[in-house]
Amino acid sequence: xxxxxxxxxxxxxxxxxxxxxxxxxxxxxxxxxxxxxxxxxxxxxxxxxxxxxxxxxxxxxxxxxxxxxxxxxxxxxxxxxxxxxxxxxxxxxxxxxxxxxxxxxxxxxxxxxxxxxxxxxxxxxxxxxxxxxx
Length: 134
Hints:
The protein has 2 helices and 5 strands. 52% of the residues lie in helices and 11% in strands. The chain has one domain. It is mainly α. The chain is elongated. The strands form 2 sheets. It has a 3-stranded antiparallel beta sheet. This is GRF-type domain-containing protein.
């Protein structure tokens, strides 16, 4: 699950801070994001995409709350587990797709074999009708 998806899930639509308009020195509006780092899990903030890269140091926490110890332990592990499960799912989806391709190819071969058998049968039948030998 991407950080953007996690941000969307974690945002409370009734939170008035979601509608706060913050701009960095680039003049761009910044949307609230959520930190998934171990030391600040599920903590919301605003920052410039160029933070630390383009001498733009725009960064603001939504609040000054400290994250409780249990959340610091549980949330990163849950996010890591989600990522692991998404990788397993992607692997299974890839295998299913490969199996579907193989099944189509196998079906195509069976169809070609059947057509060949019918063609041989028709040739033999025509030969037998004409003169009894081919």
